[in-house]
Amino acid sequence: MTDHIDTITGDAPISFADRLIGSEFFNELFRTGMGLVEETARYLDGPGREESRTLNRAGSLVYATESMRLTTQLMQLTSWLLLQRAVNEGEMTPSQAGQEKNKANLAALSSANEGPGWEELPASLKDLIDRSVHLQKRVQQLDEAMSGETMPRPANTNPVNQQLTRLATAFGG
Prior knowledge:
By secondary structure, the chain is an all-alpha fold. The protein has eight helices and no strands. Helix content is 69%, strand content 0%. The radius of gyration is 23 Å and the shape is elongated.
């Protein structure tokens, strides 16, 4: 078995991130994100504007705060999604996207979904906020998975080979 282990070379591990960004999962996430941005813009420019006029003072303040927070959050998510798509399509290198990605703050601006005036917000705005928070969590999970991939490894190491060597050593092979 050790002869077989010695023949395994590990110049480059398979990149989970590369495969995921080029997958239908990412394409669906991208479509969902862009669709949510368009839906939010239509709502805030149309029905949302009308609904906000019916709110009392506390509700109006929360509406203004949450709609601004929602818009900012969606722009951060859109930035991240566009960067990943640019890498996938070969328009940027992963390192270029990594430098730009640092400008997008994926951890900030989630809505509290509670507090004074929250209950007065229109159901449509609450729904958009809930969906954006869900999208943010999905993007954060994907970003964390991708970031874990970029951890430096010693040159010429293959994690599978390392595990096989450990097994062979443990079982006297």
